[in-house]
Amino acid sequence: MKRRSPFAIYAGFTLSVLGAIIFNIGGIFAGRTAVLLQNLQSFLPWVILIYPLLLTVRGDINGILTGKLGTALHLGTITPTWRKNTNRFFHLIGLIFSLSLYDSVIVGLVASIIGLLLKLPISFLDVVVISVTTFIIGALISMVLTFSLTFWIYKKKGDPDVYAYPIMSSVNDILITITFFATCWFYRPWELNVKLDSFVGIPFISIVTIAVLIFLGMNFKHNYIKQGILQALPTLTLTSFIAAGTGIVLASFQGILEQAQILLVFYPAVISTVGAQGSILANTTTTKLHLGTIKPSLSFFKTQNFSINYLGLITSGFIMGLIYSILGTIILPEGFIGSVYFKFLLILVLTNFIAFSIIGLIAITAAFLTYKSGLDPDNLVNPLLSSTADLITTSILVLSYIIIF
């Protein structure tokens, strides 16, 4: 068999990554929907504060699910089928559902605290009910789509570590944005004579909580569930507070968002792309650690394997920046304007390059440290990576806009 040249490996990997993260274009549709959230601000002044938290934390859960599922398929502990699957398959479903409930309550708590500090009129009950409802509905739909997609990729001899997270990241951005908007309108907490959050939301949350407690009571004895809960909960708590930082950054530049709504349109796609790049690097590294094909040492940074993957992800991010800038200027009411296009191109390329350069190093370092500590990187790396990527990318995106415009 002819040995492939480094360039051929680089080109093949880059095309594979592009085939996955091209779906992040869907984030622009999420961004278009997110613009509608500004219409809710007169009723719920905290919607822009909590929106980044929902996107980030949903990304954390998605990172755990895709990371664990991809590793399990490679190791053979889960089979790519819905029927007659292993106990690990059902344990993973219950684990993700439990983590989703926990994270949604934490998001509500964190958002309420930040809202009070920012002196926003905010109700803890309203925020928690809307957050939990959004997450639970989103988790149910997302898990069905994630398992179906990952099974299909694996059966087609594709690598779930490369494709699953980026595709589902974009899908989840759209799903959470639409679900959040619909949930706010369904409960309508601003209508004091219609307290659906109390009469519908609280019973709904109570039923979900009881179901999760029953599952944990029956299955916590299993090491997979116990480790998943004990390792993931502290991480998810930490990432929720990191996500709060993202919300504060976005809320602090509310005036800029009102003047340049195109930033909000770009926002989900841009953070999803950086998150996807980091997740691909983290997931492929984690799988190789589990399989024993690489060692968790600094010498990995000198290998051809690292160089090709890192350069391929940087190239993919640059290409996505070109695509986003073209779509963004077409969306503008004024139509395509050359000077505006090149400014947006510079913003997007600069944001992606700086953010991923930082996140990529964090991804590999975190995977190595957790693996050396005897912890499961799938429980820790993706959640930490997702929230950190969103905070870093949001900050760089806004600062780049201020500097260039």
Q: Count the strands?
A: 0
- The string of secondary-structure elements, in order, is HHHHHHHHHHHHH
Estimate the mean pLDDT confidence: 83
**Main sheet makeup:** none
Give the distance, in angstroms, between the N- and C-terminal Cα atoms: 53 Å
Molecular shape: globular
Domain tally: 1
Strand proportion, as a percent range, falls in under 5%
Number of helices: 13
Summarize the structure in words.
This protein is mostly helical and 405 residues long. The protein contains 13 helices and no strands. The protein has helices spanning 6-21, 26-40, 47-75, 87-117, 124-155, 160-187, 196-219, 223-252, 254-259, 261-291, 304-331, 338-372, 377-404. Helix 3 (47-75) packs antiparallel against helix 6 (160-187) and helix 4 (87-117) runs antiparallel to helix 5. The longest helix is centred in the last third of the chain and has 35 residues, at 338-372.
